[in-house]
Amino acid sequence: MGQRHAYTEYHPRWLRRPVSTYWWLQKRSYFAFILREASCIFVAWFVVYLLMLVRAVSEGEMSYRQFLSWSASPLILLVNLVSLLFIVLHAITFFEAAPRAMVVHVGGRRVPNGFVGAAHYLGLLAASVIVVWILLGA
Amino acid sequence: MRDSITLQVARYRPEQESEATFDEHEVPCPKEWVVLDGLNHIKDRIDGTLSYRWSCRMGICGSCGMTVNGEPKLTCATFLSEYGRGPVRVEPLRNFPVIRDLIVDMGDFMRKLVRVKPWIVRQAEKPLSEGEYRQTPEELDDYKQFSMCITCMLCYAACPIYGLDPKFIGPAAIALAQRYNLDSRDEGASERMEVLSEHEGIWGCTFVGECTKVCPKHVDPAGAIQRYKLTAAVESMKSFFMPRGA
């Protein structure tokens, strides 16, 4: 036994295996998780975009029209499209987690997870219908 | 039906080497043989120095968790025939320091488990003359799923958060805390809340969901954690808006 490998019964010489920098590429679920974490950047972008829209509107018609034409540029369209995809991923994850986080009892009986999930999607649908109604009605 | 399969078994002999190596052995693979049978065959017939933990051989003691072809598995519940032509690579559980061969040091998990007080906490025991603490089937159902945990630590091996931040209290400890929090006889929820609501408690979890996928007892630790996040958030809102208690 070499001096380098001193090992006694009461003080094990552990083998510690560091996590690879590319651990998130090793499994689909890990990769999906990293995408989901990244989605927060796009959520933040939509907030900034909305604030910019509000500022443009407050500065008058000219400024609003400039904002619209800037938004129609291919780069911003692409950024917004990618952002939308990430927001959808974010929402789906949230809706998947929700039924597992919420235990709902009705009349002393536990509501199945599927119902809780479906209620969330119905809520999303209702909110979307209201938004579309406002947009088309305006 | 093949009559043998190659097992690639990770070895780490701290008195001889500073890195893990792999030994290859051909072992029989009748259809009823699990990975653990293959390891037992090696230990009994080929190389008696191979070290690994196992006990019940029926998926209840939680001792024989290892990484099989990259996935955390109970080796007593993983059939060799699932791997077709092989080879089958057996390594120690990830995210834990290895003591020897396939044996990991579970001290970190054990210390965390005790912190969440996985037992029934009573502020005052009622006198024996009042009889037992009764529960309805519905009250039992509330926590039964989480009581199935066998502390095999597969969920820790699957959790990248625990791998990156070993301070994270981890899936099984939180699921077992919930097992007692949701028990109608228990009064220790606020004591557990102090540990669970730490930064390294439930908030460390970012819902990767792998713990639930690998759990051999369908405990759903990821669900337990998300559920507890909601409880903790509601409690903290309550204490913010009603500081003197509702």
Question: Can you walk through the features of this model?
Answer:
- With 138 residues, chain A is mainly α.
- Chain A has two domains: 23-86, Fumarate reductase/succinate dehydrogenase, transmembrane subunit (3 helical TM bundles of succinate and fumarate reductases, Up-down Bundle); 102-138, no CATH class.
- Chain A has helices at residues 28-58, 61-71, 74-101, 113-137; strands at residues 105-106, 109-110.
- A two-stranded antiparallel sheet of chain A has the order 1-2.
- In chain A, a hairpin with a 2-residue loop joins strand 1 (105-106) and strand 2.
- The longest helix of chain A has 31 residues, at 28-58.
- The radius of gyration of chain A is 25 Å and the shape is flat.
- Chain B is of the alpha+beta class.
- Chain B has two domains: 4-104, Ubiquitin-like (UB roll); 107-241, Alpha-helical ferredoxin (Fumarate Reductase Iron-sulfur Protein, Chain B, domain 2, Orthogonal Bundle).
- Helices cover 35% and strands 13% of the residues of chain B.
- In chain B, a hairpin with a 2-residue loop joins strand 3 (65-68) and strand 4 (71-74).
- In chain B, helix 2 (107-115) packs parallel to helix 6 and helix 6 packs across helix 9 (221-241).
- The N and C termini of chain B lie far apart (67 Å).
- At the A-B interface, helix 1 and helix 3 of A face strand 6, helix 5 and helix 9 of B.
